[in-house]
């Protein structure tokens, strides 16, 4: 089989974890598989890089920041490549160059006082580049050839910095050209997750948590047999285990369930991961690098339908509810169209939409980081309606969360919404707005942010998701 396996931040956060990741890749290769590894940055490094850039643009940057990032990488490299001095020296030199570049970019920011999405991508994507040579070195110590490859050489993207989209044809061609000969020679290439480059070679990133997406993009480009996502939990669970301690791993879910869960906040998978795999019917496995013998979750075409309808519950925090309201909105055509055109022009992602049947209120949810920008754009696009009084107000509420109940079998199953509301009522959680996608695989609700965890637990309990389903 050809397997693309991705290791998340916690799976490469220290020399010990990188050694384990290397052993897992090597085991698969020794079992006769062709293996492409995708690595994230060491846990916490991407946050540190972004923090460094944001402080630098405010005039605060000191070299200790880059030293702090450099040191754990240097230590891990020393520990994991004891037998190959040449390789160690070269890798160390490449680490130093990357750190110097970080210093130069951040010093530049302290002078320019402007941080463009393009520069932020150049900085935030460095963590994967620092980690990949170490993991490749650790694999090579097992006697299997391995080299690190920067995904800027493989994944061609548009120039939407911060959430770039791959251009499939170019990406497929480059990836096959570069990786297939290595695989044929029995090598294990270690590719940096999270990053790509525009057609002009400018580095981009695929969005936070995007290394999962890298794995499925490469899996599709290589016509891989399977994509494995190694993380720190035993697969996709019925809820975030931090919210619901009794959450259980689902052994098999469908592509649509996985993508709906990821979209509505199950951080274990980046929400775009599923599409490239789904298009080519490549199974995606989510596995625990801390407990590799656990079978994890398998994402397949049919999943394993649950008789309960609801299979899992998720929540998204750090979102804002934008409400456009006014009694005069009733019967005035085109307000929704104008509003969403304005939102689209801002390239903001709308997570949920709800309109009361009275038409007095149209509300939708966006990421909090985009809310002020979107509201400004709305005020300008709807200026006339505001002046004429059709719209009385456009407001932002930052204190909300989305809670979603997901499952393929919800389709056409009566009584599910009633049960969800009953569960929330019984714990006194107020529902601010609701929405059900036309796919009927999902009921999403807006609740107060402070009540989100309680809401998730109540729905989890009501559908007895802690117990295995038939
Ligand atoms: P990685 O660093 O491996 O990419 P992430 O932190 O991005 O890992 O994702 C794994 C985390 O996702 C888990 O540790 C867990 O806290 C969180 N999570 C949220 N929802 C779920 C869910 N439904 N099932 C499993 N994990 C979840
Ligand atoms: N390192 C990146 C992040 O922290 C990508 C990833 O881990 O998937 O967002
Ligand atoms: Mg992740």
Oligomeric form: single chain
By CATH, the superfamily of the largest domain comes out as Acetylglutamate kinase-like
Ligand roster: adenosine-5'-diphosphate, aspartic acid, magnesium ion
Helix content: 40-55%
Mean pLDDT value: 94
State the separation between the terminal residues, measured CA to CA. Answer: 31 Å
According to CATH, the fold-level topology of the largest domain is Carbamate kinase
Measured on Cα atoms, how large is the radius of gyration?
A: 24 Å
- Our count of helices gives 15
Widest beta sheet: strand line-up: 3-5-2-1-8-10-11-9
Q: Assign the CATH class of the largest domain.
A: Alpha Beta
CATH architecture of the largest domain, by name, is 3-Layer(aba) Sandwich
Number of strands: 17
* Main beta-sheet annotation: 8 strands, mixed
Poorly predicted ranges = none
What is the overall shape?
globular
Relative strand content? 15-25%
List keywords for this structure.
single chain; 470 residues; alpha/beta; Carbamate kinase; VC0802-like; 2 domains; six-stranded antiparallel beta sheet; 21% strand; globular; binds adenosine-5'-diphosphate; binds aspartic acid
